Fold this protein.
Amino acid sequence: MTSTSTTARPSNVKALVPLTVGAAVAIAIGTYGRVHDPAGRNTFTLFFKDTLSFKAWMTTIALAFALFQLVSAVRIYGRFPYPKAMPAWYGDAHRLSGTLAFACTLPVVFHCLWSLGFATSWDNPRTVIHSTAGCFFYGMFTAKVLSVRWHKLPGWMLPVVGSLTFVALTVLWATSSLWFFTNKGFPQG
Amino acid sequence: MTFKRVVSGLQILALTGAAFTVLELFVKDPPALTLSSADSANGAEIFQQVCAGCHGSKGEGQYGKQLNEGAVLQSFPQKADEAKIVLNGRGLMPSFESTLTPPQVDAVVEFTRTELQTAG
């Protein structure tokens, strides 16, 4: 008699679950941005002269952490040769970089949504792209976090969702911090 | 404490921060204007508290358009047209009808067209 115990195979259909949750998060953020009356005020500044300088730096720091997370992910998947011997803490460093990247975006997204809102006017395409990328980023981030926790997903899920999260953050940075640095000057402390 | 535990702790903190951010989005009201006197329509003060966040403290433009160096006078040769934008908003600029009284709108518009143009 053959064993009846089987291990459930990852199903592509199960991938729809975190993607659907991520899509719901993205839509919720976009809806808030459209419906809420933007306050038009400064929020956090820390030691910067204004909120926009603070945001430009925080987004840049978030991207730097995300870049480390991307490179470390590629190494963990064996697609990158360095470091040759992966230290025991490497996986935790990967997790930490993602956590810090996310944390750095929180005061930024608060100001974006509460003070500025979701841009829809194509008179300024940069802001429309930025608003859309912002919603997409948090949706993908949600899907990624769920994908990490749920081990019954297909193998392609985490790399794809993780990569899209990084791309979204890069677009966010390019349409905000990079624009700020090149058009308004390097933010002063 | 192991590195793994520290990371897990930070993840919980980040999640808490996210929940707090979401909460603030719904409960935080814009701060009331703090002006030097109760009925003050001090254009400079209003500008710094309400406009500078987007237009820059000298009107040099940041997220919002540049206003100094003649920019606002060129865009709005008529003062009333500029006041209309402040009241109704346009594009990314929100409406300030519920934030500013008519004298305050007049004062801040006047400020952008006079003192802001001559400020260093």
Notes: Chain A touches chain B through 36 residues (CB under 8 Å). Chain A has a mean pLDDT of 88.
